[in-house]
Design brief:
This protein is α/β, with parallel strands linked by helices. Helix content is 42%, strand content 15%. The two termini are 29 Å apart.
Length: 262
């Protein structure tokens, strides 16, 4: 476990001497980019929800993030998210789990999350439903679709969406809200754009074949490609590193030049 001095040094290295100001400045810069992308696409800024992703961000800094207006946060890993949710209960934060969920983590996620953006199997849907019924609550869900065709990605394939969504009616505690995807890893802008267009096409098809299913929103776009995603119709963008800085993980190098000082 990190000692207090080590944690302070890590926070300073990642967020500078004034972490709150860093967060406020980064959030403002992302907001400007979202507004510009919306303008290019002829869309209202209010049409796009920004979901800040606090993956790997220390609780002390997440507390500051809430203070500058980030009241809903996305997390990839249930264990990390659950710890933050417990520590920050008094702040009224809403939590969205956006990463692949192992079936044995379903009950734990239900204990704190209000939204799940990576539903990719009916088995998982059933386990979530059981836990939700026991807890007496519901959960907003996005179906994850693999639009890049990469074997490393989770999600159902685009041509499976109709049958999958039709089955969700068996689990009334799950409230379908939309579709989620990740663009091709290290792809060109046009390859990324193609992934987003595929998700848009899946939603359009579901509107015809599964009318009233609740699948209205598209969650697509992250730090490296959220502007393209907005131009292609994203309703939710999941942005982590452009707000919270480069992660101390292997995926921290994907978007050089998009953060101050890089």
């Amino acid at each position: 476990m990190d000692q207090p001095g080590d944690l302070e040094a890590q926070i300073r290295a990642r967020f500078g001497d004034d972490p709150e100001r860093t967060l406020r400045d980064n959030l403002g810069a992302v907001e400007e980019r979202i507004a510009a992308a919306c303008a290019r696409a002829g869309r209202s800024r209010s049409a796009v929800r920004l979901l800040p992703v606090s993956k790997t961000v220390p609780i002390e800094v997440v507390r500051l993030a809430v203070g500058v207006g980030m009241s809903t946060l996305g997390e990839n890993k249930v264990q990390e998210a659950q710890g933050k949710a417990k520590a920050l209960t008094s702040l009224g934060v809403s939590w969205s789990v956006i990463g692949h969920l192992q079936t044995n983590k379903a009950k734990a996620m239900v204990s704190f999350a209000t939204e799940f953006q990576a539903l990719d199997s009916l088995r998982l849907a059933g386990l979530l439903h059981e836990s939700l019924v026991a807890a007496g609550r519901t959960l907003d869900v996005f179906v994850q679709v693999n639009t890049s065709g990469e074997e490393s990605k989770y999600g159902i394939m685009p041509d499976e969406a109709d049958a999958f969504v039709a089955e969700l009616g068996r689990f009334p505690s799950l409230k379908p809200k939309g579709l989620m995807t990740l663009a091709i890893l290290k792809g060109t802008p046009e390859q990324e754009r193609a992934c987003f267009r595929r998700l848009h096409a899946v939603r359009a098809r579901l509107a015809k074949t599964q009318g009233g299913c609740g699948i209205d929103l598209l969650s697509m776009g992250m730090t490296g490609d959220f502007e393209i995603a907005i131009e292609e119709g994203a309703d939710v963008v999941r942005v982590g590193q452009a707000i919270f800085g480069k992660r101390p993980t292997a995926d921290g190098h994907f978007w050089p030049g998009l953060l101050p000082g890089t």
